[in-house]
């Protein structure tokens, strides 16, 4: 195989991976669009809670996920400059912020439970069940993103991004998508109570 064929194969490989990520992000978007649409329709139910407040920890988790997007952006700047030690630092920072996000989410769930708002059971409501489903589903995706961050961190340490940075680019896109998704959910849940 000559050099031109190898380059063409690499281009096809990059396009295929980017398309797979795009389809995954579209699938996640459609899932959350369907759930938030069901939420809006369910607001007309007579048992819908109208005086419900989001947990304070959801505000702090929103700040944390915004900071994690900034640290991922700084990792991108570092990798573009081939500064792989700074890239590792910023990826590690993003991972630590993701841990804080997960902790703040669980503290938010504890806050809900302490106020008597449950996911299921006799004491649950449609309102709180939606809140749990939306935030837990997002949390599952964040945990997947954390696994991606670990892989990217290890690959960066092994200098796999000196020539081909596609893996990092895909991880960065996924992470920013998760941040945007949480911002959407937070604003949606805050204003559409």
Q: Any low-confidence stretches, pLDDT <50, length ≥5?
A: none
Report the CATH superfamily.
Cytochrome c oxidase, subunit III, four-helix bundle
**In the CATH hierarchy, what is the class?**
Mainly Alpha
Mean pLDDT: 94
Helix and strand content put the structural class at: mainly alpha
**Strand segment count:** 0
Percent of residues in beta strands: under 5%
Short description:
This protein is mainly α and 193 residues long. It has helices at 3-42, 56-80, 84-114, 126-157, 166-191. It is 80% helix and 0% strand.
Your description of this structure?
- This protein is mainly α.
- The chain has one domain: Cytochrome c oxidase, subunit III, four-helix bundle (Four Helix Bundle (Hemerythrin (Met), subunit A)), CATH 1.20.120.80.
- Helices cover 80% and strands 0% of the residues.
- It contains 5 helices and no strands.
- The protein has helices at 3-42, 56-80, 84-114, 126-157, 166-191.
- Helix 1 (3-42) runs parallel beside helix 5 (166-191), helix 2 packs antiparallel against helix 3 and helix 3 packs antiparallel against helix 4.
- The model has no long low-confidence stretch (mean pLDDT 94).
Which key features would you list for this structure?
single chain; 193 residues; mainly alpha; Four Helix Bundle (Hemerythrin (Met), subunit A); 5 helices
């Amino acid at each position: 195989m000559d050099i031109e064929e190898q380059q063409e194969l690499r281009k096809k490989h990059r396009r295929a991976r980017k398309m797979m990520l795009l389809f995954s992000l579209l699938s996640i978007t459609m899932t959350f669009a369907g759930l938030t649409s069901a939420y809006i329709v369910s607001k007309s139910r007579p048992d819908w809670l109208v005086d419900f407040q989001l947990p304070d920890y959801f505000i702090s988790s929103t700040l944390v996920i915004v900071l994690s997007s900034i640290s991922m952006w700084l990792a991108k700047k570092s990798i573009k400059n081939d500064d792989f030690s700074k890239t590792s630092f910023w990826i590690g920072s993003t991972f630590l912020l993701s841990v804080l996000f997960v902790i703040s989410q669980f503290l938010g769930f504890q806050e809900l439970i302490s106020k008597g708002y449950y996911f299921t059971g006799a004491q649950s409501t449609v309102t709180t069940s939606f809140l749990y489903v939306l935030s837990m589903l997002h949390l599952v995706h964040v945990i997947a993103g954390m696994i991606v961050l670990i892989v990217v961190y290890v690959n960066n340490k092994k200098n796999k991004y000196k020539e081909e940075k596609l893996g990092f680019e895909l991880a960065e896109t996924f992470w920013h998508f998760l941040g945007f998704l949480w911002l959407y959910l937070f604003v949606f849940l805050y204003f559409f109570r």
